[in-house]
Inverse folding.
């Protein structure tokens, strides 16, 4: 593809993706659904204006790196270490159990174990990028309700990313597990040291914030940090997205100062929401086809299972979710989005799943992303655009 052709393809994808994303957001739905629809409409199934190419796949991988890095920046290790006994129950009821049920159904239908578990995980995994917005809308971020939902989502995402890494290189499972354990220990040691010496580190960033090019240097440092972790994970045979995710977790406002952190993190959000997110999800939509036959049945069964387990998860924990009514609680817990599509895209690009199963993941995410927000009480709704660049709470 010549330079002019790739620029035109990006222009069409980005423009239409941003337009549909804003339209969906205006009516209370996640932007990424509009982004995916943009690719689906422009792709071979409907209009055929844009087709997948090696160049677009490369841009999608770069975009995914920045998206996952931002997702990592949205969470901290504190979320994982607090209330473990309580949130791990919701991790199992909201993610692990529905994944097991869907995997079993796919295996019965004669799909391979790898295809079954990846498809089940991608449809079932909650998305931190979607649920964090819903928790903010509900104004429960600082309450136990919100912290448990966020923690459960983060752990679910880590399990999904790690499982994908193992299935991508299943012959080296033991080596990958040992390597992952070592890397996690190193990560938490770095996290401990950053917190211990945060005053000293904060003074350094304070000096950087006063320099004209300080934000540029710090922004570049975070990207390099993400690439280092991503490279290490690739070297040991684990998908780079897990490395980018963990690198993002090391970025705190407590070590940078809230004002400087806000400037830097807002830069990440702007570049993601204005380019990487609409481009990645529109490219993801290009390869989707409408599920038919057995794949349509799998799609419907998977959606029913996820909705049922979302309801059971809320009912099981309703004594804890004291600030959420039943309808809205199910809507928040059932949030699906970026993480599932990311897993599906990587698996499809790696040849681990077929185009039909990839499309089941895409349409499963679309349907759940369209239906679950409708369950949330409008009286708690806040415009997503007001939250998009909101400084995360630490």
């Amino acid at each position: 593809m010549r330079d002019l052709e790739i620029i035109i393809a990006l222009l069409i994808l980005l423009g239409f993706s941003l337009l549909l994303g804003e339209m969906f957001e205006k009516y209370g739905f996640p932007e990424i659904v509009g982004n995916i629809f943009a690719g689906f409409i422009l792709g071979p199934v409907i209009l055929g204006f844009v087709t997948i190419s090696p160049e677009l796949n490369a841009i999608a991988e770069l975009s995914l790196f920045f998206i996952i890095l931002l997702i990592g920046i949205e969470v901290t290790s504190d979320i994982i270490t607090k209330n473990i006994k309580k949130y791990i129950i919701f991790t199992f009821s909201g993610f692990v159990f529905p994944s097991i049920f869907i995997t079993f159904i796919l295996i019965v239908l004669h799909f391979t174990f790898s295809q079954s578990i990846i498809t089940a995980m991608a449809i079932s995994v909650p998305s931190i990028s979607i649920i964090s917005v819903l928790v903010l809308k509900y104004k429960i971020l600082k309450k136990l309700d919100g912290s448990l939902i966020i923690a459960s989502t983060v752990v679910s995402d880590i399990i999904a990313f790690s499982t994908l890494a193992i299935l991508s290189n299943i012959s080296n499972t033991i080596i990958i597990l040992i390597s992952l354990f070592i890397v996690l220990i190193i990560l938490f040691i770095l996290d401990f040291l950053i917190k211990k010496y945060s005053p000293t580190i904060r003074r350094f960033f304070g000096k950087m914030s006063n320099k004209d090019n300080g934000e540029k240097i710090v922004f570049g440092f975070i990207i390099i940090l993400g690439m280092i972790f991503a490279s290490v994970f690739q070297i040991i045979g684990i998908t780079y997205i897990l490395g980018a995710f963990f690198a993002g977790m090391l970025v705190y406002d407590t070590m940078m100062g809230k004002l400087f952190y806000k400037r830097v993190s807002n830069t990440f959000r702007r570049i993601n929401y204005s380019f990487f997110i609409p481009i990645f999800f529109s490219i993801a939509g290009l390869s989707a086809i409408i599920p038919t036959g057995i794949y349509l049945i799998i799609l419907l069964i998977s959606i029913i299972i996820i909705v049922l387990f979302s309801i059971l998860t809320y009912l099981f924990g309703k004594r804890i979710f004291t600030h959420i009514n039943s309808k809205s609680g199910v809507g928040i817990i059932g949030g699906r989005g970026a993480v599932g599509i990311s897993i599906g895209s990587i698996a499809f690009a790696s040849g681990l799943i077929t185009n039909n199963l990839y499309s089941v993941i895409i349409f499963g995410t679309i349907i759940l992303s369209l239906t679950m927000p409708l369950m949330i009480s409008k009286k708690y709704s806040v415009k997503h655009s007001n939250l998009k660049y909101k400084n995360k709470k630490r």
